[in-house]
Design goal:
- Helices cover about 50% and strands about 20% of the residues.
- The protein has 10 helices and 8 strands.
- Strand 7, helix 9 and strand 8 (about 180-185) form a beta-alpha-beta unit.
- The model has no long low-confidence stretch (mean pLDDT about 95).
Length: about 190
């Protein structure tokens, strides 16, 4: 299992990458908290040519989302387009697959959502553990079930476990064959 640092804090990112993390992901709230301009952030970190760097698309309509994708891809066509699960995100994912642009669908809370994202052509799935648990669901079971479905059917998609809350969850995820874990810096340090 490879680690992706879930942060927009430059010091945390540098340390995590020095530890061996393979990439960076963040969301608008994290950019805001760290006073980062979204586009400048992507431009700065795209220069590192990391295996994984995502840029999350915001917008309500498909047209708005496509405009945002164009801005991100203009910075670097290798940036993974991260989409919040919705019917428009599935449509956009399908469009981008045909264009050869890698996508990640985030905010996955059910197996059915994961299967829909696989059908739409997502390259990465972000199932949420902690937030699923908060809704009375079993977040760890969600992730491991999705991973089993992918392995069983040999789907060309990777799981990025997200909303991980403790070191034990990291260990279970690694044992279950999950491809990536998007982890906050504090959990990364604690795991060491």
């Amino acid at each position: 299992m490879l680690y992706i640092i879930d942060s927009a804090n430059d010091d945390d990112i540098k340390n995590a990458l020095d530890f061996g993390a393979c990439g960076i992901t963040a969301n608008p709230a994290i950019y805001l908290k760290n006073n980062q301009n979204f586009y400048s952030f992507l431009e700065k970190y795209s220069k590192l040519e990391l295996p994984f760097l995502s840029g999350e698309v915001m917008g309500d309509s498909l047209e708005e989302m496509l405009q945002e994708v164009d801005k991100i891809i203009a910075i670097d066509p290798n940036i993974i387009i991260k989409l919040n699960f919705s019917s428009n995100a599935l449509k956009l994912c399908n469009i981008l697959k045909k264009r050869g642009i890698r996508t990640a669908i985030t905010l996955i809370f059910t197996v059915n959502q994961a299967v829909a994202a696989i059908n739409a052509g997502a390259n990465y799935l972000f199932p949420f553990i902690g937030r699923s648990d908060e809704y009375g669901l079993d977040g760890m079971k969600l992730v491991t079930t999705i991973q089993q479905i992918i392995i069983k059917n040999n789907y060309p998609v990777s799981v990025v476990a997200a909303s991980i809350k403790n070191v034990h969850q990291l260990e279970v995820l690694a044992e279950s064959g999950v491809d990536y874990a998007a982890i906050p810096y504090n959990l990364y340090v604690k795991s060491l």
